[in-house]
Amino acid sequence: MINEILLKRRSTVLFDTKSIEDAILESLFEAARWAPSSRNTQPWRFVYSVRGDEFHASMIECLNSANRIWASHAPVLLHTVAQVVSDYKDQENIYAWHDTAMAYSNLVYEATDRGLYVHPMGGFDRDMARSVLHIPERYEPVIFAALGYKSENPSKFSTELIDREARQRVRKPINELLFYGRFGTEAGFKSKQ
Ligand SMILES: Cc1cc2nc3c(=O)[nH]c(=O)nc-3n(C[C@H](O)[C@H](O)[C@H](O)COP(=O)(O)O)c2cc1C
Question: Range of 42's domain?
Fold first, then answer.
């Protein structure tokens, strides 16, 4: 068995509009702060907006139309940004994407532990995000994510979203992902499900 929290996390499309307390939101970003990074460069940045504030509508606009449908219910929209060129000697940081994902992952599991759901999205207009969110040079847009509680009243959603939520979640078997010693040499572990 693996840790329960890993199984509890899922990319829901049934968000409740219920707001998230500032103190909880703060602890999610605090969790992200403590992620490891190459040379401790901490290349991640987060831009967020709260449903109804002056920034939220323009952040929703950056999403593709399919994502907008469900993500607009979530009380918080988050954008992750990676500093891909360091301030020191203008060097490329090839680990910036990796480290930003590590920080995002910390945030996700802190959120999951607090009964929240986070749904990442690559489906957004990068140029629009850069311009709308004022992302400076040396930084790259990575993902958007919707953040909030899962609705306890799914009947108010379209059948398409309800069906999508009910779809079985699948993963590749471990022997396709794990090798022993050399790429391609199966390790012989068996997936649990
Ligand atoms: C980098 C990245 C981009 C994604 N982009 C989208 C997206 O644009 N729209 C969407 O509905 N889900 C998106 N997802 C969510 C995946 O579809 C989801 O994580 C995957 O189906 C596994 O489901 P689970 O997260 O519930 O385990 C994205 C996930 C990641 C990590």
Answer: 10-152
